[in-house]
Amino acid sequence: MSVAVVSDVKLPPFQALLDAHREDIFRFLVASVGRNEAEDCFQDTFVAALRAYPDLAEASNLKGWLFTIAHRKAIDCHRRRRRNSVSLGELPETRDELHSEVFDPALWDRVRELPPKQRSSIVLRYVEDLPYRTIGEVTGCSESAARQNVRAGLIKLREEIGP
Amino acid sequence: MNDLERSLANVGDLSGPAAFAAGRFVDQAAVMVDVAYATMDSPIGVLLLAATPEGLIRIGFDHETDVLDDLADRVSPRILEYPVRLADAQKELDEYFAGRRSHFDVPLDWALIGGFRRRILEVTARIPFGSLSTYQDVAGQAGQPRGARAAGQALGGNPIPVIIPCHRVLRSGGGMGGYAGGTDRKEFLLRLEGAML
Fold this sequence. Notes:
Chain A is mainly α. Chain A is 66% helix and 0% strand.
């Protein structure tokens, strides 16, 4: 058989990644694109990850790497949706599956309308509890820019829904 | 943290839907997987079975904790738990342990077995159910008559125990010799095959 490993980085079995991070990624996507689209984005994220996995040059931050892919898939998803000009409000959301007592649909609709970097940064900061340095890595900017994106996102949300 | 930030931290519990999505992913990603694995119960403990598209590449005993990491390192890290791929091997092993099967038909992937060890294990693979051989004999048939000790080492590193029947090889004097799975398991298998009382 062909041996797929080209790098000498020690990568854990992909199943271990899936087990350890499926919930983080799913939560990130539900917050970023909504419950209905999250399922497909989840599939796209892990298929892309599995495809690229053996060629990965670095194994030190696999969680961040998965978030980077999910961040891009969420952007693709929003783009696709805009092209089809379906607004978020028109989509039949299956909110019943979420714990309604802790979940505020109106707030999350607003979050999803934020510009991509602000949206991902807000979700990574508050839903995933990641440090700004990692948020910067995932969204492709510096630590201070990540902090700025979170702040800008919060200001916009406050303007829209009140304090 | 103010109210807005607190609300943002509450998405709800998504562990169920996440597990479901992960299951769907494994089903559709199976074609891209280099190594599929499954675990099964057996009379000699839980066995881990791993296969490439080529065939069965590894059987691990329950005390071997690094089997998957080792496969990720030596074969490919594209490893997923996908029992469908191991269904044939599992069925044959179940039949073997139930005393209804005396040889295995599942294809094997010999990629982890090279050089001298390959020759030794090829000879070993031909020892029939219920018979015994010695390290000395196996070494001789592999073209190394004085290589009994090396043969023992090669057998100890058998990546596909039970199916490549290294348990059928004993010391020349009749002693049990070693077994990667422990001599208790070796004895159990030989009793199962009627090669030992």
